[in-house]
Every structure is written in C-alpha cells, then in structure tokens.
Specification:
This protein has 270 residues and is α/β, with parallel strands linked by helices. Helix content is 36%, strand content 17%. It contains eleven helices and eight strands. It has an eight-stranded mixed sheet, with helices on both faces. β1 and β2 form a beta hairpin. It is globular and about 50 Å long.
C-alpha cells in the first residue's frame, strides 16, 4: 500500500506511465481492472474518501477538491508530463486538473465521460431513444417503471439501481458481477457530495485555452454520454479527437477490450 498526502494507488502493467482517475463517482479503482490490458504502467488512484484513501469528511469530496491530491501524487511520483485517463465522473477532476496544471499533462483521455462539469445536462430525448432501443431485452419489462422515473428526473437510488443494465452492452453474468462489485464499494450520497454546491463548471473560454490533446471515447450504445453528446463536448477542446466504440456501453473495456486498447494506445502513441 502506497500513500501520497493520504492518497493510495495501485500499479499494474508495464510501459509508459498512465495516471488513472476513477469514476463512480467516488469508486475505488478495482472496477477498472487493467483497462482491457492497456500497454502502459497504470497508476490507479484511490481518490480521497475511497478504497485505501478513505474515509473522508463528505464536505471534502467535491470533485474540485481532489485536484491538488492528484498534483501531489504526480509530483511525488516524478511523472512530468504525464498522460492522464479518466472514466465517467472522473472526467470532472481530470479536466479541472488539466486546466490548472496544463504543463504537467501530455495527453488527456476521457472515457465515456460525465459531461456535467462542462455544463451539459442529460438529453432526455436521447435517453428515451436509447432505452427504447433495448426494449426487446429480457430484463427490460422489470425496469420499465424505473426508466420512466429516471426520465422524469428521479434521483432516487432505487430507480438508478434498477436501470443499471443500460450501462452494460450485455447484461450477462460478467456484467452483473461487475455491477455488484461497484455497488458494494459505492459511498452513500456520493453524487451529491461530489457535485456539491460551489463545484465549478468549465467555461468554453477556459477550455479554448487548453493546449492539450484530448480524446473522448464514447460507447456506441451508451446514453450518458451519447455519442452525439460526446462529439458536441469534444468541440469545446481545441485539440480534440473522438472515438465511438461500436456496440459498447459505459464500460467499453469490458465490451471489446481489443478495440478499446487499440483506440487508447493509438492516441497515446500518436
């Protein structure tokens, strides 16, 4: 177990270092596995309050309060500049980190990123279309009411838990086990604490000045974000690339590890 200013991390793989910010929000990094076998030395961070870096005061879990933890770890590890990868809600931290410390970031990879910290709300029409596109799946009838509640704006944990199958391209045994593992480590009120009042929203003007290559990787059947939303968000970054992984949902390294691995590795090697 290794700590940096209270921040723990795991290291996996070999190759150039890749600093990894988990999503969730506020999940320990074990749910990421080895990210489809990316050919890199993964530095998988346990954010404050999570995994071996927990517990923490909920008032200290807002996403922008993690940025200097990341910088302290990067500096101690001697990673300068470093490639930075974030999944889902972790994108809020990674984008804000790159804005504050652009000289320390070589390339930024945002995997099925939450766009909330960019000021994007959910597109309800696209969410409904995504839901209806999977209406022939055997689990759909049991979650239909929860889908309608979520589309109506429900923030209830039970409704969001019910729609978990939509975050996976295949709701098979492996996906169900992955979902159970995520649920077991999920912090109470994580989203409310992570996006608490005062959390910054990156402006187009700020992002226009970010001179860092950015890859947004979206899942072809993901709804948060949809491929269209990811492409719209990418245009806020001056040096952007977009990859839509066919048939993938919110955890694309599970759906097609080879495609995911090649897409990210090609971007980092370019």
């Amino acid at each position: 177990m290794i700590f940096c200013m209270g921040l723990a991390h795991d290291e996996l793989g070999s190759g150039a270092p890749l600093l990894v910010v988990p999503g969730g929000p506020l999940l320990a990094p074990s749910y990421l596995g080895d990210l489809g076998g990316l050919p890199a030395r993964l530095h998988l961070l346990h954010l404050r309050g999570t995994g071996r870096s927990g517990p923490a005061d909920p008032a200290e879990l807002r996403f922008d309060l993690h940025i200097d933890d990341i910088e302290a770890y990067r500096a101690q590890a001697g990673l300068d500049p470093v490639d930075l990868l974030a999944h889902s809600a972790g994108a809020a931290i990674a984008i804000r980190y790159a804005l504050r410390y652009p000289s320390h970031v070589r390339r930024l990879v945002l995997v099925t990123p939450s766009l909330r910290s960019l000021g994007f709300g959910p597109d309800l029409a696209k969410l409904r279309a995504s839901a209806e596109s999977r209406s022939d799946e055997p689990w759909y009838p049991a979650v239909k009411d929860a889908i309608e509640a979520v589309l109506a704006g429900s923030a209830a944990g039970s409704d969001w838990a019910a729609v978990t199958p939509f975050f996976y391209a295949r709701w098979d045994d492996a996906a169900q086990e992955h979902a159970r593992a995520c649920d077991a480590m999920r912090l109470p009120n994580a989203a409310a604490d992570y996006y608490a009042a005062g959390a910054p929203v990156a402006t187009p003007e700020e992002l226009a000045g970010l001179d860092v290559p950015v890859l947004l990787l979206a899942g072809g059947v993901d709804a948060l974000p949809s491929p269209a939303a990811a492409e719209k968000a990418a245009r806020l970054f001056p040096r952007n690339s977009v990859v839509v992984q066919p048939g993938a949902a919110h955890y694309p390294w599970l759906d097609d590890p080879a495609f995911f691995r090649d897409a990210v590795a090609d971007f980092l090697a370019d």
